[in-house]
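Work Package 4 report. The design task specified in the project plan requires that, given a folded chain encoded as structure tokens, an amino acid be chosen for each position. We show below one input record used in the internal validation round.
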């Protein structure tokens, strides 16, 4: 007999609601059910497994929200090790289900746990209602990508503070852009903290009009070098993972777009495996339906829309009376930001464009849109949305319609 357990995960505990049949009156059930709460300890894990029952582990499905790589990972991994199936529900989908479908009281941990359990029961046989579970390699790649993004955020204020100090201590070097060379830390910061010698900076400092380098600035430089070394190790590990055979067709397509290593890894962690966006026959899901306004048969490219939404570039319509507008909601904010930066550096700059039909096509759209006088931010968003659609088509060509498709 199948049973569903809804788990609302907090920082150091989890609220649980176990059901083995359909709940007809959610509000009444909410007030009479004895909700369970378990601490994030070995004892708490054992209590959770005891609630499920050792004889029911393989017949139980745990429903939870994807609360990042910090909280959900602990409980999800422990349950998976005990042979409990784990499914994830998107935040927006659960909020809408709890508020509009169930009519539960104000949000709290118990209400969320109950909503998760009922959601799992109602959509038990509808896999698309759940967030796709990623395989271990993709989870590892995503963890490394998020870690690199974190290190980048941590470095920025330290570098800014160091440059402000250089403005009066060594102004001749304050605006020098120093980057890594291979596995060596950037020369400027390495020289400032004594890790790398440089005759150039020695001579420049002798003639400087600055007031002298302080120990505080040297400590800032040492911190930057430590963070850079951590980045080097993470990027090396990321390169090994990205080199696995199953990812080569994807990277072949990414190369046509001129994506950098980090952008490739980020996109791969979001869209792999590509078959998740396709129909049951392994081809793009295209439905022909009657248009709401024209009344004529219209193609609905469902796979393409799911793909665009995953990358944060699927607009949603908002209409009321004569007012009609659309805005982008949902999807990956990291992917949206990465694609925006890619447009800014590889498409908008003419000399940096890819020397192929993709670069020509996107560059032509960029130039014509800017020439029309449209706001540059709007132009970049439009070109990025077009690039996502092109990426989908190229992946379909490579993974679905090639002679040896590899998905």
């Amino acid at each position: 007999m199948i049973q569903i357990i809804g788990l609302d995960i907090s920082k150091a505990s989890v609220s649980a609601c176990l059901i083995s049949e359909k709940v007809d009156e959610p509000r009444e059930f909410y007030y009479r059910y004895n909700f369970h709460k378990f601490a994030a300890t070995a004892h708490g894990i054992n209590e959770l497994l005891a609630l499920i029952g050792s004889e029911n582990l393989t017949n139980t499905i745990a429903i939870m929200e994807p609360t990042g790589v910090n909280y959900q990972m602990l409980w999800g991994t422990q349950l998976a090790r005990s042979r409990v199936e784990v499914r994830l529900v998107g935040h927006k989908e659960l909020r809408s289900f709890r508020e509009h479908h169930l009519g539960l009281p104000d949000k709290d941990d118990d209400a969320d746990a109950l909503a998760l359990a009922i959601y799992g029961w109602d959509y038990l046989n509808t896999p698309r209602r759940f967030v796709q579970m990623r395989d271990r390699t993709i989870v590892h790649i995503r963890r490394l990508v998020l870690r690199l993004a974190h290190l980048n955020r941590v470095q920025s204020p330290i570098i800014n503070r160091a440059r402000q100090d250089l403005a009066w201590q060594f102004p001749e070097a304050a605006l020098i852009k120093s980057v890594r060379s291979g596995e060596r830390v950037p020369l400027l910061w390495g020289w400032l903290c004594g890790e790398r010698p440089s005759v150039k900076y020695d001579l420049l400092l002798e003639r400087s009009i600055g007031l002298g380098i302080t120990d505080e600035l040297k400590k800032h430089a040492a911190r930057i070098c430590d963070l850079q070394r951590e980045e080097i190790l993470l990027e090396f590990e990321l390169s090994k993972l990205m080199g696995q055979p199953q990812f080569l067709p994807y990277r072949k397509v990414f190369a046509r777009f001129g994506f950098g290593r980090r952008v490739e890894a980020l996109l791969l962690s979001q869209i792999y495996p590509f078959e998740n966006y396709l129909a049951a026959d392994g081809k793009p899901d295209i439905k022909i339906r009657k248009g709401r306004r024209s009344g004529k048969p219209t193609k609905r490219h469902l796979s393409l829309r799911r793909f665009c939404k995953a990358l944060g570039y699927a607009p949603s319509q908002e209409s009321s009376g004569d007012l009609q507008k659309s805005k982008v909601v949902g999807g990956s904010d990291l992917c949206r930001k990465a694609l925006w930066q890619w447009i800014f550096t590889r498409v908008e700059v003419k000399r940096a464009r890819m020397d192929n039909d993709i670069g020509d096509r996107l560059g032509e759209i960029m130039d014509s849109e800017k020439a029309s006088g449209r706001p540059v931010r709007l132009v970049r968003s439009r070109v990025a949305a077009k690039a996502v659609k092109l990426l989908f088509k190229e992946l379909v060509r490579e993974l679905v319609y090639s002679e040896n498709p590899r998905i």
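The chain has three domains: 3-129, 137-242, 249-314+331-399. Validation will be extended to a larger panel in the next phase.
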